[in-house]
Amino acid sequence: MDSIADLAKDAQKSGERVGLAFDSIVIDGGVPLRGRIEVRGAKNLATKAMVAALLGDTPSILQDVPQISDVSIVTRMLDAYGVAVTSPEEGVLVLDPTNVERAHFAQIDALAGSSRIPILFCGPLLHRLGEALIPDLGGCRIGDRPIDFHMDALRAFGAIVDKSYEGIRITAPNGLHGANIELPYPSVGATEQVLLTAVRAQGVTELKNAAIEPEIMDLIAVLQKMGAIIWIEPNRTIFIEGVDQLSGYTHRAISDRNEAASWASAALATGGDIFVGGAKQPELMTFLNVFRKVGGAFEVHEDGIRFYHPGGPLKPVQVETDVHPGFMTDWQQPLIVALTQAEGVSVIHETVYENRFGFTDALVEMGADIVVHKDGLESVTRRVPRRKLEQAAVITGPTPLHGADVRVPDLRGGFSYLIAALTAEGRSTVTNLGIISRGYEHFVDKLEALGAQFTLEG
Ligand code: EPU
């Protein structure tokens, strides 16, 4: 077995591999994307399954792990806690938690960056080490970033949460016991927090109003392989019977439906034809309905889904983002670029996040007609009752897009800028590309494979 120092170096190297050597891409748009690309395991499962490995007594093997920087961050965090992470072959991680140890706070603080994943280390670390430290993710961001559901759940398990100048220190002097928890909203992260904590807590936990995203079901599958007893009841209720011991798992991560939907929207917006190898229909059903209503065509194959623009005008749609099985909030940004090319007025309501339309400003600079209504729109018939946090984007098309210089604001917004630049006539420069590598594996190679015209800049 390699020494911890070697593994730390390996982890560092894997971080460098996914880190991009360039910051900008100059795209000559107007060329339809055509060809085949592959998607691998979902970012939003792989990183959580990696944290789950901390709970086992023996090594876990995770397959189909994408080379993205979020995986690299979690690799380095696990390494800091003494979990030996090796990659015997591309896409496979072996996570050995035999020698879990306390990490230096400064190390965790430096690694965590803007990732949400450190919060999910709480339950496993409390079980393994009796203490968890969550860094203050810069300034007063802990106060501003809502992690209240997470902290309330941990308290319900018997944890003590102390805020310090460094961040949050969580301890469990009397151990963790099963709890009755009802989430105010079916939060993905808070559901994962409860699962990762309850599986080794003493007694039974009842979680009401849980999130039931496919990635959560896959995390439950991982935990069940480890020895957990988890019952999924109707009406978003999950019962978890705590057990004394969990062992390692071998698991192939569920496919990344968000990446698949992103490339699908790229095919539609550019008038192209993309076969997304590894895309799976069941997790994409809601997206596929919308894709078809907009005028896109798709074919479901054994090994993936072909998404293409069949010709003719695109049609406007009304969509609300929602928790599963609704239309995911991560799908709206790429789709909005395609909707700028539809004939008529589309409305997208964002009901999951408070502020997720900021990226549309740059699309407007590129020629799109998008008006954001911060308080939503009363007049539109809604499928679900209004939520307090919501915004509506009204997209009127078709509008030709023209090239511009734009800076990536966040992961999904950033990918939508790539699509806009590929759709636009003329030349665009997209900067701050590193953020896109958080969640899109080898996206530059994929653009090349699909015939995009571009050059990279440092
Ligand atoms: N919320 C609170 N308090 C909390 C936790 C959440 O108010 O303690 C609120 C959030 O502010 C938000 C809503 O609840 O308004 C939903 O947040 P949720 O906890 O469900 O999201 P998350 O776990 O932080 C994950 C994904 C997101 C994805 C959402 C929704 C990961 C690492 N992130 O975030 O993915 O959008 O679920 O499905 O799994 C992405 O991939 O780009 C991404 C942002």
* CATH classification, class level of the largest domain: Alpha Beta
Query: In percent, how much strand structure appears in the residues?
Result: 15-25%
The oligomeric state of the chains shown is single chain
What is the residue-averaged pLDDT?
91
Q: Tell me which CATH architecture of the largest domain applies here.
A: Alpha-beta prism
The small-molecule ligands in this entry are: uridine-diphosphate-2(N-acetylglucosaminyl) butyric acid
Taken together, the total number of domains comes to 2
**CA-CA gap between termini:** 37 Å
Shape, principal axes of CA atoms: globular
CATH topology heading of the largest domain = UDP-n-acetylglucosamine1-carboxyvinyl-transferase, Chain
Largest sheet, strands/sense/barrel: 4 strands, mixed
Keywords:
single chain, 458 residues, alpha+beta, UDP-n-acetylglucosamine1-carboxyvinyl-transferase, Chain, 2 domains, four-stranded mixed beta sheet, 32% helix, 24% strand, binds uridine-diphosphate-2(N-acetylglucosaminyl) butyric acid
